[in-house]
TrEMBL record:
It holds the Pfam family oligo_HPY. This is Peptide/nickel transport system ATP-binding protein. Belongs to the ABC transporter superfamily. One of its GO terms (molecular function) is ATP binding. Its main location: membrane. It comes from the Bacteria. CDD domains: ABC_NikE_OppD_transporters. It is found in: Cell inner membrane. It is a peripheral membrane protein. It comes from Inquilinus ginsengisoli. InterPro entries: AAA+_ATPase (IPR003593), ABC_transp_ATP-bind (IPR050319), ABC_transporter-like_ATP-bd (IPR003439), ABC_transporter-like_CS (IPR017871), Oligopep_ABC_C (IPR013563), P-loop_NTPase (IPR027417).
Length: 286
């Protein structure tokens, strides 16, 4: 472990395959361009921007799921592109992504128990089926679901419960860093609040470092210390949430704020230190 940010993007460019130009040639298209970004250890950084601005692509690159076309991503000081073999595996276990749509992110043919045990098997954590199943039950408890969910299938759960499974799977290997990508989209408002409180509770209890991708600026303001604003793959503004939201320096940020007026927020939410005390018992609902 080195000092400094846990995760850092330096002049990072990420490309995706472009449209075919004949003869099967696909010219890569830069989706993220020259991004500099630092995520402090234990901090929460929000990533905002309109649809298609490259948030998901940048998030994927930060956890090593998309390669850098130029520049680099450093995790705990190590260049992801240079890591190989066991060193890369060890890094992979420390960073996880939670996806927008748990319905498609979870394999419908696997029980929840199998879904949670798989990463433990793949990374050689714990010995034997019994110990891994016990850990899976522990993970369910951690996200507020009853143990009998182990033998259920994703379609038997509500959207909120499925996203709790997505979170349980992401923390199974005790990562240091999580990218949460629009994880409450499509859920009703009260379920959204429960999932966000769960994430915030786990972040504190497990000491996670978080990148939180959202189009909902009010949620970013509550959950994150800092915010990075993306426009067509480039950072146009970044800084502490309060400063950026109260006095945006870039016209695009101001437009984003206008397009999504910050709704009235329960004052308890704004008081982050009081959040832990405010978290309701995690019942199986939602
Ligand atoms: N694998 C891919 N192949 C081709 N194009 C891609 C690929 N991945 C992303 N893109 C394109 O890159 C652009 C940015 O996508 P990305 O999902 O990163 O943006 P976003 O800000 O997360 O958007 P949204 O909020 O809609 O999810 C989009 O135009 C998308 O169509």
């Amino acid at each position: 472990m080195t000092a400094g940010p846990l995760v850092e993007a330096q002049a990072l460019t990420v490309a995706v395959p472009g449209q075919s130009r004949g003869f099967g040639r696909r010219i890569p298209r830069d989706i993220v361009r020259g991004v500099d970004l630092a995520v402090p250890r234990g901090g929460a950084v929000g990533l905002v921007g309109e649809s298609g601005s490259g948030k998901t692509t940048l998030g994927r690159a930060l956890v090593g799921l998309a390669p850098a076309a130029a520049g680099r991503v450093l995790f705990d000081g190590a260049d992801l592109a240079a890591a190989k073999g066991p060193a890369l595996r060890a890094l992979r276990a420390r960073m996880q992504m939670i996806f927008q749509d748990p319905q498609s992110a979870l394999n419908p043919r696997l029980t929840i128990g199998t879904t949670l045990v798989r990463p433990l098997e793949a990374f050689g954590r714990l010995e034997g089926r019994r110990a891994r199943r016990a850990r899976a039950a522990e993970l369910l408890d951690l996200v507020g679901l009853p143990g009998d969910a182990l033998d259920r299938y994703p379609h038997e759960l509500s959207g909120g419960q499925r996203q709790r499974i997505g979170i349980a799977r992401a923390v199974a290997l005790e990562p240091d860093f999580i990218v949460a990508d629009e994880i409450v989209s499509g859920l009703d408002v009260s379920t959204q609040a429960q999932i966000l409180l769960l994430l915030e509770d786990l972040r504190r209890r497990l000491g996670l470092t978080l990148v939180f991708i959202s189009h909902d600026l009010s949620v970013v303001r509550v959950l994150c210390d800092e915010v990075v604003v993306l426009l067509r793959g480039e950072v146009v503004e970044a800084g502490p949430c309060a400063a950026v939201f109260d006095a945006p320096r870039h016209a695009y940020t101001a437009a984003l704020l206008q397009a999504v007026p910050l709704p009235e927020i329960d004052p308890a939410w704004l008081d982050r230190p009081a959040l832990a005390a405010h978290i309701p018992p995690l019942a199986a609902s939602g």
